[in-house]
Amino acid sequence: MDDTILNFIGGSYRQGSERKTFPNFNPATGEQIGLVQEASADDVADAVAAAKKALQGPWGKMTTAERVKLISAVATEIERRSDDFLEAEVADTGKPRGVASHIDIPRGAANFRMFADVISTIPGEAFTTDTPDGGQANNYTVRKPKGVIAVICPWNFPLLLMTWKVGPALACGNTVVVKPSEETPRTATLLGEVMNAVGMPEGVYNVVHGFGPNSAGEFLTSNSEVDAITFTGETGTGQAIMQKAAMGVRDVSFELGGKNPAIVFADADLDKAVEGLSRAVFLNTGQVCLGTERVYVERPIYEEFVERLAAAGKGFKPGVIDDPTYLGPLISAEHRDKVLGYYSRAVDEGATVVTGGGVPKVENAQADGFFVEPTVWTGLSHDSTVMREEIFGPCCGVIPFDAEDEVIALANDSPYGLCASIWTENMSRGHRVAASMDVGVCWVNSWFLRDLRTAFGGSGHSGIGREGGVHSLEFYTELTNICVKL
Ligand SMILES: NC(=O)C1=CN([C@@H]2O[C@H](COP(=O)(O)OP(=O)(O)OC[C@H]3O[C@@H](n4cnc5c(N)ncnc54)[C@H](O)[C@@H]3O)[C@@H](O)[C@H]2O)C=CC1
Ligand SMILES: O=C(O)/C=C/C=C(\O)C(=O)O
Question: Where is the active site (predicted)?
């Protein structure tokens, strides 16, 4: 793998104009594996200018069918080069290959393919209107791209979350400037090769590397030629970006943090609930915005559930071996410090550590990786910090409950509103409780089961807007209503 990670601007790979670099680490070994060329303010301005110019060039003049052909070719090319994407994603994130090969990379391709389908089949809206003079008018809407979209991404599912935004943005005829997380620059950069290989016009897809404040992230959101900003990441960052978006009254789409609850009723199929929640708590080492960190279990099955979830947690071994019983590292030493801070705080707040709570022993090339133990707590109060703040690690607190109304109130008592899961064999209860959750997405007897056509996003501190299927079009297009007096 090339050690130097470059910006991709106007169809060409470029160093940063100030020749500043920052290191890229493999979280599984703690080793530095590359240097990233940081984009300067001028580089970011160039990328935005290239994106703007592309809107006036061949891209802006293409028919939907021509754009769809190119976007579908991007999906096919990602699939053809899936090994390269896999290597790049695994190097940046340290996640086991099995996770990246089943989730991150296929979703990277699917995100382009699905939005190519959506844009090909979306119907228009039309109304015939009676007019005051006894005549009629016909109203119909046309969709237009918003323009240059800034796409700011996190590190937990780098290709998946970036393409989830780039796919619909391009399908709607926009151009993009992507700012990947400083922790995971590789797959966004590699996608530039794919764009060139399929013949995407230059400037349609651009990538600038760097950090947030006073770096590429802020340069991008402050650039007045950017027409809208889409972001996935931490709630506080969303607030900072929103302030920049206010300049020029630009639209935002935010998918932010969560402190997602699961509710397990006594009539749940316990095998399914334990299997589902062991994924919801531990998958991707808990670095999933949809992950479960609060589990409410009805009292008659509480003890058994805790024992079985803890056994599932204990069953994971630290490492990146391609075997589902292995759990990868956290993304960075800094993030590990944050998670371990919550591990100690849980004890200070009165938790019983049923399993985990520390750093595992790893005796191989990954001895310096950023691993933590999968952790299950009981005894925490619903109001404790650990049960209220997003940790983003492989851990959860389990709390017993006695009544449906009580647990609905507990689950909804959070400033976040991203997702929830309900586990019960009583389907009328499943529907009822799911509908009472103040969240964007609620699963019943499953978790992270995704149909890309559905609305996806969160309420409250978890985000603004919904993306997915036709819902993405609300953000990535402007509607013009045309009224023709007959
Ligand atoms: N999907 C999610 O909900 C995610 C949540 N997180 C949470 O966020 C915490 C911090 O992780 P970070 O990667 O530091 O998240 P972050 O929200 O700070 O960073 C995400 C992206 O935003 C950029 N960014 C940061 N500040 C910015 C600014 N002022 N203007 C423009 N761009 C900016 C970053 O460079 C990165 O590309 C994690 O510990 C975790 O709790 C992190 C990743 C994903
Ligand atoms: O399936 C999706 O579109 C998104 C999944 C995961 C996240 O959004 C996340 O962890 O940030």
Answer: 255
